[in-house]
Design brief:
Elements lengths: L1 H18 L4 H10 L4 H22 L12 H21 L2 H25 L11 H17 L4 H11 L4 H23 L7 H20 L6 H23 L1
Helix pairs in contact: 1-2, 1-9, 2-3, 3-8, 3-9, 4-6, 4-8, 5-7, 5-10, 6-7, 6-8, 7-8
Length: about 250
Amino acid sequence: MIDLLLFLVAAWAGAQNALAGGGSFLILPTLMFAGMDARAANITSCVALFPAQLATGWTGRALASGANGLSLGILFAISIVGGAIGAVILLVTPPAFFAQLVPWLVLFATSIFAWGSFVRKPGGPERHLGAKGAALMQFLISIYGGYFGGGIGFLMVAALTLAGQNVRVASATKNVLAGIMNAAAVAIFVFSPDLHWRQALMTSAGAIIGGVLGAKLLHHVEEKYLRIFVVTIGVLLTAGLFYKAS
């Protein structure tokens, strides 16, 4: 019964990611409901969602590019190193401490998602970040991505557009870099005893199917309502996690 629930929630999350983002807000609490502690759920979620992220990045790879003097290869390298560092930090973080940190991480991710969805205006000045600033931002985002990952899409799009990319190219580059940084994290997490393989495979299958369906529905669903749904889930999850931690 739990496996079926994971599959169905993951399918919804995969479609949500394809349409608007924020699918991890659904996966994390479901894995915790299945009996995992917060750190194990985060590790399992990262591994489970990786194939769908990789497929998304590969599909849009033609649009991906470097930014403001940084080649795509350099951004690859920064993302791999940062993702690996974030993953190692997560593995050495005590589960009890991570459980206390999760409400704040979800609150941060929800705030970033809400800002990117309803506040941020994509048509601002073309360039504020130089090459060094863009490299530092991508490195810090990659560490956060390897450690937790919620909201990295909007963080990367914001950084890349500030470095001179238009929104469409930034979105494609973000998808590629998200897969790369998670590849580094997954390569480390597969050796962790906190990874629950059965649940990861069930979640991954659902996310891939949902992602394919979501991509097909991309031009037929009102994205605004999906984003409102994601923010609502994030707010409720944040409140529930803070209540549980109190």
